[in-house]
Amino acid sequence: MTHRLPRRSLLCLILFAAACLTTWLATTHRDSQEKEAQATHRSHLQKQATRENEARRLQAQQADHDLLASVLLSGHLHPFDPEVGRQQLEQILRQLPIGNLTYEFGPPTRAQTEGPSLYYRSLKISVSILHEAVFLALLERIVSTSPALVRLKQCQLKPAGIPDIPLMSLQAECELDWVTR
Description:
alpha+beta; 4-stranded antiparallel beta sheet; 3 helices; 4 strands
């Protein structure tokens, strides 16, 4: 015995199946569009990050090329000698009214230049001084007598607060780049 569905029921079933299929297709299409939009956004972000990294690399390379030009023009292509740096700082200490000078040379970092190899070494200085003018004289002497190209990175002056030395009213802390080959 065969059962036949009435035409109306068959039509309703076909319409219901068509509605389900349409809903499924619309949802699938929307999901694929969202995934495509996310992939496009990720790709855009990756390209932007790559461009930004390349721009930073080029800026660093340009800074190093500018550094090389400065070094070549100044004639400061001497190899690094920590003893020379120590002697220079101690000689300056004897010439200026400075108290409690401490300094430290950091490890070398190679500059990204073509031609001669150049190295940055961080020089950290901490010193008690009487007046800002003494500090400026200290920096000027370091720059003018150094066997390296010296570039100022950052400095800070603050009240010293040293009970043993009431006349030393300021504490100066500086970080310099000491550039040699």
